[in-house]
Design goal:
There is one protein chain. The chain is an alpha+beta fold. It has a domain at about 25-50. Helices cover about 20% and strands about 15% of the residues. The protein is built from 2 helices and 2 strands; from the N terminus they run βααβ. A two-stranded antiparallel sheet has the order 1-2. The termini are far apart.
């Protein structure tokens, strides 16, 4: 049985990574109230207490 030659190895990877967190947050209990839903859907089901919100002048991919 013959084997194919090993491919040439190339170094690849991330050179840098960044993280930006919005300064605004909405308590999920308030979100549930506004949507007429049970707050436990968010607090128990998703384990979430607040939902981050981007300010109007910031896009979600900025």
């Amino acid at each position: 049985m013959t084997h194919a030659p090993e491919p040439e190895k190339t170094d690849v990877g991330l050179a840098a990574i960044g993280l930006a967190l919005p300064s605004l947050a909405l308590p999920v209990e308030e979100l549930a109230r506004l949507r007429g839903e049970d707050p436990a859907k968010y607090t128990l089901g998703l384990g979430c207490l607040e939902m981050a919100l981007c300010p109007p002048e910031t896009g979600v991919v900025d």
